[in-house]
């Protein structure tokens, strides 16, 4: 088991360290990005637009006037506070397709910032963490490497498991040689963080491999709605929001997906009481863009235990589960894999040098005897 732990650590330890450090950087990635771009906070005192505000339609018109492509999908983010209004423009279809990140002025009349996803620091770090800068194949690599990381953690625990005194197994030998103290630091830091690391890595695997998560957890899928065109005028965003609000009155709006075709519906994303993730909750309301009918309601509270379990994956992974305290803990936890990799590598190299020195002495002794 120690040999398995060693070779897993040498094989994926560096990737584990990189994912841990980038994960720490991403815990507050929207806040860090705002701090790096003060223009986003220049009008922070402006009240956030509400359900009936014309700002949403004005922002969409401003964006469409600048990006003249015939197709494409628009998503507006509802932050709930003043300042710039974030949005996403997908010129191509697909959740992970290339997209432009856009920020509108609080009145929706101007574009104050526009950058391609992955083209600025925080999204570059996000892509490194999620896909090792290799697109969808990189996401698969990260996901399946995460399985190996789970084995690395489990093998470390099994290799450490005491055969005798627990007190001795948990002891830090202050007066031992430096390399022995480093071994103890590697052992104890791994043990102290092992449960949290197992949770973070396991949830990361499920996020990177959504098809695997679907098989293992089987949450209720978000419905695919295909309404028929009615020939009526399209609803404004404000009217569609009012209809969605009545369908889910206790929900907090987080995203507005604008119809990208004549038959596609509005899709409003909500956080309902009991849904743990504040930014990417799991409830949706679909509103027909012509008739205004509510086509479907996906409420995580009414979809069973499997959907409830699924809704906790992201919030356990990014540390938002307990607010500021757990987010700070997630930042500190992200440094642990790098520390374990460095101390394990140094200890392994020291042992190799010791073995090589012993072999050399043995060879000299045999020559002397001959």
UniProtKB/TrEMBL annotation:
Please provide the record's keywords in A-Z order.
Membrane, Transmembrane, Transmembrane helix
Q: Name one Pfam family in it.
A: PepSY_TM
The superkingdom of the source organism is Bacteria
Bilayer-spanning residue ranges: 7-29, 141-161, 188-209, 328-348
Protein name (database record): PepSY domain-containing protein
Which species is this record about? Answer: Sphingomonas aliaeris
């Amino acid at each position: 088991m120690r040999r398995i732990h060693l070779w897993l650590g040498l094989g994926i330890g560096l990737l584990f360290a990189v994912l841990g450090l980038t994960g720490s950087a991403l815990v507050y990635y929207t806040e860090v990005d705002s701090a790096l771009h003060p223009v986003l906070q220049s009008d922070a005192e402006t009240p956030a637009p509400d359900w009936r505000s014309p700002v949403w339609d004005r922002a969409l018109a401003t964006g469409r006037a600048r990006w003249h492509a015939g197709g494409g999908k628009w998503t507006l983010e509802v932050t709930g506070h003043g300042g710039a209004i974030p949005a996403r423009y997908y010129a191509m279809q697909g959740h992970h397709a290339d997209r432009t990140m856009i920020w509108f002025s609080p009145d929706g009349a101007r574009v104050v910032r526009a950058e391609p996803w992955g083209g600025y620091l925080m999204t570059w770090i996000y892509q490194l963490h999620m896909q090792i800068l290799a697109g969808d194949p990189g996401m698969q690599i990260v996901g399946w490497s995460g399985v190996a990381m789970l084995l690395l953690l489990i093998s470390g625990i099994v290799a450490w498991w005491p055969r005798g005194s627990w007190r001795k197994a948990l002891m830090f030998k202050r007066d031992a040689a430096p390399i022995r103290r480093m071994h103890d630091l590697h052992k104890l830091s791994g043990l102290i963080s092992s449960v949290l690391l197992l949770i973070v890595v396991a949830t990361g695997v499920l996020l990177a491999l959504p098809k695997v998560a679907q098989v293992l957890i089987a949450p209720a899928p978000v419905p695919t709605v295909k309404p028929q065109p009615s020939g009526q005028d399209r609803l404004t965003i404000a009217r569609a929001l009012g209809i969605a609000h009545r369908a889910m009155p206790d929900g907090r709006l987080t995203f507005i997906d604008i119809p990208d075709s004549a038959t596609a519906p509005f899709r409003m994303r909500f956080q309902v009481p009991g849904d743990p993730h504040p930014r990417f909750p799991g409830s949706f309301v679909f509103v027909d863009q012509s008739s205004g009918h509510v086509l479907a309601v996906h409420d995580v509270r009414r979809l069973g235990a499997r959907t409830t379990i699924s809704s906790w994956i992201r919030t356990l992974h990014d540390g938002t589960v307990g607010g500021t305290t757990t987010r700070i803990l997630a930042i500190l936890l992200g440094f642990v894999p790098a520390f374990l990799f460095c101390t394990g590598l140094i200890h392994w190299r020291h042992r190799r040098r010791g073995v090589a020195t012993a072999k050399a002495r043995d060879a000299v002794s045999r020559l002397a005897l001959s």
